[in-house]
Queue: 2 jobs
Job 1
Amino acid sequence: MTEDFVQTEAVQTLLDKASGISEDGGNDRLQTITRDLVEGIMKIIVRHDINESEFWQAIGFLQGGADEYGLIVPAVGLEHFMDLVMDARDAEAGKSGGTPRTIEGPLYVEGAPIVEGDANLTSDPDDTDTLYMTGQVTGPDGEPVKGALLHVWHANSKGFYSHFDPTGEQTPFNNRRRLKLGDDGRYQFHSKMPAGYACPPDGPTDQLMKMLGRHGNRPAHVHFFVEAPGYRTLTTQINFGDDPFAKDDFAFGTREGLLPMPNRQGDSAMIAFDFQLQRA
Ligand code: MBD
Ligand code: FE
């Protein structure tokens, strides 16, 4: 049997009906995309001789993994692929430049405290290295960006994020802040050095990674959204330039230009990192 089977009249009629294309009403774009998506899956079923037991195994995986879609999507490279697509669209539109974007991931929480000046992000105990970050938000011509809001979020020294911590040890919005910047676009904060993140052990994403011969770990990182009137919102992260695992990321978030080298002295790590935004 070949993929031509999908082109038979019975299957094509099934696709037209299942996607709603042959019915009255409905959302045209959704109908077309649904049809293509289902047809693509049908082709894979035929191409790989997928049998009934494998089919139901896949459905079971998707059902069991529903809570972890936000992890499965970056794990299989789709979230990074969206960045590559947006970069390519920008290049086509002549809109390149500035700090690279990279994936948001599933662990942002809205409503973090808004703070000004030298900000402390953490209520973690004082037994791990302190991270100091400073820098400036500028525009395409190097002009300071006025009135920016810098969202920052990162894991604690065990790799857990507040609001998603299985130990229940963290206070709400720990290691999450929105920094309100002034007219010079400068920011400054301190926190505790994050550790790398690992997918929940033996959860659906971790299981899939193991079956693929991969791992479910991310190197240590700090997430940012940079928002300012008149500029395009940037979603990005940094890794640490001296981290041996910096480029071994199951979620493909590490990028050139996002690997500042910390200046480590005793139990502190200092990082200078500027953000350059594109105009809206
Ligand atoms: C993370 O902390 C993260 O940033 C991503 C992209 C996926 C899983 C956990
Ligand atoms: Fe993260």
Job 2
Amino acid sequence: MRVLVLGGDGYLGWPTAMHLSAAGHDVVVVDNYLRRSLAQERDCEALFEVPNLVRRAQIWKERSGRSINVRIGDLCNWDFISDVFNTIRPEAIVHYAEQPSAPYSMIDRGAAGLTLTNNLSATFNVIHAMNNFTPKAHLIKLGTMGEYGTPNIDIEEGWLDVEHNGRKDRFLFPRAAGSLYHTTKILDTDLLWFYVRVWGLRVTDLMQGPVYGLETDENEGTEALYSFFNYDEIFGTVLNRFIVQAISGHPLTIYGKGGQTRGYLNLKDTLQCVKLALEAPAREGELRIFNQFVETFSVNELSDKVRASGDRLGLNVSVETLPNPRQEAEEHYYKPSHTGLLDLGLKPHPLTDDVMDSMMMLILHYKSRIVSDRIYRGIKWKPA
Ligand code: USQ
């Protein structure tokens, strides 16, 4: 298939591009380097230097013999995006092209405004470009489990059947985001659902939990093909952060009571899920929603895993309970269903002791590159 990977420079975008290319798809990556420049502006760059997309595509070609084409530009610019869709005429579009950080979206009005404008304009333009140039294409959009929040009932896979005053109907599962970033994902879903209803587009919306990991089949052993591995408070997800903290001797930064529970998955499983969704597309006029995670853990359970791994590797890992800078439930019910991707054939990589230890050992090689003052700066959801 001809596939556009929008946000192809990101933590998930670049590994996805290589994974789909390795599977024989014809991949074009599009990015405007927004995440790179925001990380640079905030002095929170990743653990490894990541070559630009053109260089990465060259290195990938040397390794695999396969080409990935690169287009640099801003999807919020209609002339640019319509040119991309018009020339490439994709059969599938994987859309990751958003400001991905919850803490970033809570810094101040400017950061919040950038998140809102960028994320919604990009999604809006993608919908219009699809409809103008490739109305039968399949859009795979990255949403987030955070759209649902932490309700006191079981979380269904996207939809909820409601019986009210003796009548029944099906609605999007109620959503209650915990940050402005997560709210933009809810608004994206609403935009998609509207245009699916009126224009009959095919869309898969992936409600993904926090991702961890670095190595994939495509980058193993080639540092220049690694993704961004962020461990700072803005762009690092919690398990990646805890691994770096353990290696550098920084106490693990548990926010509040640490009972916050989320659905986690290995980067390798993100790639599998996106490929499975791509190769079994949604029907015309369908908004298909999958809950994309493998296992649920509380923050305390993750910290126990990192400490146990530290013990096995002879590291002395300590923990620090910090006042929670976020506004979120610290003890709550959490039971999301996630059968759709398993039914499509997902073979999960659970967070075993071996997986934990191998991630820790990989990062141990790069210990000298850790900049410890990036680890915690205390971005508060509600300024004092
Ligand atoms: N947390 C800590 N200590 C830390 C960092 C985080 O206790 O040092 C806690 C947070 O308070 C939260 C949980 O760990 O309760 C997860 O935090 P996170 O930073 O790993 O994840 P989050 O901010 O929710 O965002 C990440 C990705 C985002 C994606 C989301 C999926 O950055 O792009 O959408 O995970 S989900 O969490 O399911 O909404």
